[in-house]
Known about the structure:
Helix content is 66%, strand content 15%.
Amino acid sequence: MSEHKKHEVHIQKGKESADGAKKEYHAEDKKDVPEGGAETIVKDHADEINLLKIEIESRGKTINEYLNQIKRTQADFENYRKRVEKEKEDIALEEKRKILCEMITVADDLDRSIAASKKNHDAESLSKGVEMVHKKLMSMFAKEGIAKIESVGKQFDPRLHEAVAVEESKNIKDNTVIEELEKGYIFKNKILRPAKVRVARNE
């Protein structure tokens, strides 16, 4: 076979190979494209978008329900807090009312003692009447948890005492309370009022 013939055969085979590759390539492309072509693809995408929209709307409704529930819970808690505060105020007012009513009875006793002393011109009866009223008042204090601070003869304690005067003394231990100028009181282990005292100093 001449060289020219060989060259023509080689070219023919190349064309056949190229044509075969083209046919195979187009066949593969056809496999990836569904029936109906581009319209089917667009329709599928539209369906997916609609499904996503429905899911988003559903989740949005769920979120709104949760938000409304949180708001209702907050409102219920706020109402509960206000109710508890009101109950505390009512209890505190009732306790004050009871104490004030007891103080009124003490004032009544004082009124009676003063009226009797004026009527009888008897200072001794007035003194006894005042002592009885004082005793009743101390009893009322004790019932409410109020106690006097013991001061005279005790070591000065800045938590319990307020030193309003200092007196030099060599016979009394330094920093000892020697006189109570105004009584102090404790209410259930808390200081209502410190006692005003005079303190010895010998150093």
